[in-house]
Design goal:
217 residues; alpha+beta; three-stranded antiparallel beta sheet; elongated
Length: 217
Amino acid sequence: MGKLIYGVGVNDADYVIKVNETIGYVDGKRKRRQAWVCPFYQKWTHMLERGHSERFKLKNPTYKDVTVCKEWHLFSTFKSWMQEQDWEGKQLDKDLLVRENKVYNPSVCVFVSGQVNKFLTERGNDRGKYRIGACWHKATGKFIANCSSPFTGKVDHLGLFTNEDEAHRAWLAKKLEYAYALAEIQTDKRVAKALIDRYENWFDQSEREICVDICHA
């Protein structure tokens, strides 16, 4: 058995997983670059890095407690699972179906588009002291609500509000509206359902009824 990948991964591929090519010579030494890498192997090693690389975890502390399930330590097992997924052009997600999930495993992982992945990134650690979606607008003495569109990338300005809770609810309503729209174009029904559930479940019952009415108006 060869060297373990990130201390746990076993590459049991029966084919070449990387192809390098010569691009020239410098001081008599050949310079090479990677011309191709197996997409299954690439996804697998990136997952193992997030789950078992101490260096990666130091740079990305939100992954401190993340691991990869033992069955996915074997490359061929992960590859077999991935081949059955709608994965091309998409990113591996571990916590859309189960919030705050810390273990990459086949029961909860799905592939999502970059558009969906960005939509789900709420940057909780960077948004400041106010509730998500709410910012203090000094000139008016009120709170302003903003929400980025997953379709245009532009920021929607949702209005001014007397307190941060109102601004936060306006943000949630808009996120739920976008979640419904994104769900309609998903090829994986699990992803579509999880997008809606994520934001519907954020509300208490009264807020949910108001926002669902907004989305279907």
